[in-house]
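Notebook, p. 212. Picked up where the previous page left off. The plan for this session was modest: take the two constructs that came back from the sequencing core last week, fold each one, and keep the raw output in the notebook itself so nobody has to go hunting through shared drives later. Recording the first one now, exactly as returned: residue sequence, then the structure token string.
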Amino acid sequence: MKEVMRQLPREKIIYFGDTARTPYGPRTSQEVVQFTREIVDYLIQFQPKMIVIACNTATAVALNDIRSRVAVPVVGVINPGARAAIGKTVTGCVGVIGTVGTIKSGAYEQALRELSPHVQVVSESCPQFVPLVERGNFRSIETYDVVRDSISHMRSYPIDCLILGCTHYPFLAETISEVMGSEVNLISSADETAREISTILQDKRKLARNDQVPVHQFFCSGDPLMFKMIAQQWLGEQIDLTPVVWQVPNIS
């Protein structure tokens, strides 16, 4: 969202964070598809001109399903991230870290190989990262130890680009960079995804043209205070954040 706000400052964003049911990574594909359907069904009432699935796990397993259910364009975050990595790698060896669900799906490896058939892909699931971020624990001895134990072995490969294959992981970027070394480029899909959004809206002649500052709306399914703290820390003073809790039925 931060990158979309930067690149497309006139666009109004309606953001939903399913904080009550995170992390999606350990859940079954069927659960993730069902949760994504519920959220999209909720968002459709606002008549959006586009849906962005800003979650790697949901993109990996639910993107095509959602595209078949709605009439507006639906954008995921995996292909944009893969394009960014292929554009920057020199060694031809790309690392991918993500949730168990994202890594198990092989979605990044498939996307990378479609762009560059001979690319070497080194993947690792990091199930402990999302809970750290959800607690707001971005920088601590515990965080460093968890990141080191999870990915330091990847340094034995000639990786020069590491895809942060979960939208929580940029919160840990400083620590990840410390562990991997400054010579490894950390790739977030945010920049490329925002470009794709812009291209599609421009092609469909739906870019916002007014000069008014948009009023964004935030919804979350879990603790609004924690949501607000993390969102304000990440987005700074760019918005006046007032999260609204949506009570999702049948939360498990």
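Okay, moving on. Second construct, recorded in the same format:
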Amino acid sequence: MKAIIYCRVSTTKDTQETSLSRQEEELVNLAGKHDFEVVRIIREQASGYDLERDGILELLDLIKRKDIKVVLIQDETRLGRGNAKIAILHCIFKEEVQLYSISNNGKLELSESDSMVLSIVGMVEEYQRKLHNIKIRRGMQRAVDKGYRPEKNLSNQGANGGRERIEVPIEEIVRLRKNELTFAEIAATLRGFGYNISKATVHRRYKEHIDSLAE
């Protein structure tokens, strides 16, 4: 399996270089013990409370883009401290990447408190996703109840039926607005019909249209 080694110390003092080198050496040995293919070694000197770290951002980017299955660390505090640690752990586990640590001499074993917090974060995220989907459905239903018929109004519905459509005819935004839908509801409704559009974009397009009429 492909793996990334992540090493971190909290300060940029020269004396910390020894700690970084020791972490790297021990993690390379741990990777060899488990026959992992190390594709990147990230060394970082920064506070664990800081989320804006080049190394950790690179790590999160790599596990999304590459076929990375394992991240090796000295212990979970090397990823971060406090809330930053929980946020990073959540991002890593969300990508179904395993964590191996020197402190556990294998797969990372989280404390009971960390496991509980991560479980709560996961539940909150799931309910946020459900609420988002409910808002889309309600927006679509409200539009239909007010006479909106997508099969008649969206002229490119059939031509690009499975493709993402970014451009939305301003006439549809105006029509939905006249039906007393909010900009958020209009955006949710159009996203439900396959248009990748935000509330801000809907508002901007509508305002531009109104301004053009006033000129």
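Notes on construct two before I forget. The first strand starts at residue 2 and ends at 9.
Flagging for discussion at group meeting.
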